Amino acid sequence: MRKRVLSGMRPTGKLHLGNYMGALYNWVRLQHEYECYFFIADWHALTTDYSDVSKLPENTREVALDFLAAGLDPEKCVLFVQSAVKQHAELHLLFSMITPLGWLERVPSYKDQQEQLKEKDLATYGFLGYPLLQSADILIYQPDFVPVGQDQVAHVELTREVARRFNQFYPKRLTAEFNVGVLPAVDIPILPEPKVLLTPSPKLPGTDGRKMSKSYGNTVLLSDPEPIVRQKLKPMVTDPARVRRSDPGNPEVCPVFDLHKVFSSAETQAKAREGCTTAGIGCIECKSWVADAIVAELAPIQERRHHYESNPSVVKEILHAGNLRAMARAEQTMLEVRSAMGLAPA
Ligand code: ATP
Ligand code: MG
């Protein structure tokens, strides 16, 4: 049996280089080897963007386009929309019964996001609970691996704790009926603990030096045309100590150099390092080199995007078929969960 993989992205805007290098390009590789489920987390978009939902349908379509543009193949993986699979909500509710509040209050993103997104009122029940919804999103597919960026590691850790607690309370007992009465009954976990899979660039910086994030307005999008990529990178923050063109810079503290490490060839990186540390080149030139590499990386992605953009009914059909497959798999887990928790079968 192939091992299983699950991950998702929020439709809070079009996808960016951070989503791609932190997770999506890994998903594209994994689909060839594993049974993969990838979803658009529209309920999660509501946890921060509940007061204005006007963009949600469009963003959901755009993320689907980005998934397909990046190379996810509906023949090789299941692509679906979270809100179409109501079982996620059911498992979230059941998890809420067994999860101590303190576990959610101490998730680092709870305080951090409230700090970063000050303009939004995130003192809501849904926002506190979103990592638990995420635990349900994950565990309902009983996956072995969850390929995500660095910011999600704490959430997968919580997911593992929730699984452990669930399995302690509600073990699946293999009785004599199964082991021919020779051995005592054994308990096996219904919800195995999944592991995180990180890429080499799990936290790509945005143009302001913070984590590149759809919500921070610091992104380079997978769908940005070349002039926009260059325009966005031009004012990107650099080594703050390099004030004048004649000052030598330190690539190790420069977010632009972080992008070089991910996108540029070894020669370009060496040239940029040498030019920066000797003040032989200015930051503008250095940024134009990284822009060249990014534009080249995006070209095949954008070509695939154009194909799907001109065939919207194909995209709709892909999601519809994926929703049905995801629902069938999620229901399989829920049958076990309901029975273990003493609930009537649906
Ligand atoms: P939002 O600001 O709305 O939360 P986001 O840009 O953080 O959007 P998510 O949908 O929350 O994107 O995350 C999708 C996936 O992309 C997750 O696995 C996350 O860890 C990863 N990811 C997001 N930003 C980055 C980044 N800058 N570098 C690496 N991975 C990232
Ligand atoms: Mg995020």
TrEMBL record:
Any single Gene Ontology cellular-component annotation: cytosol
Motif annotated as 'KMSKS' region, chain positions: 211-215
Alphabetical UniProt keywords: Aminoacyl-tRNA synthetase, ATP-binding, Cytoplasm, Ligase, Nucleotide-binding, Protein biosynthesis
Give yes or no: UniProt keyword Manganese: no
Q: Tell me which InterPro entries the record gives.
A: aa-tRNA-synth_I_CS, aa-tRNA-synth_Ic, Rossmann-like_a/b/a_fold, Trp-tRNA-ligase, Trp-tRNA-ligase_bac-type, Trp-tRNA_synthetase
**What main location does UniProt list?**
cytoplasm
EC assignment: the record states 6.1.1.2
Q: Where is this motif: 'HIGH' region?
A: 11-19
Subunit architecture: Homodimer.
- Give the protein's recorded name: Tryptophan--tRNA ligase
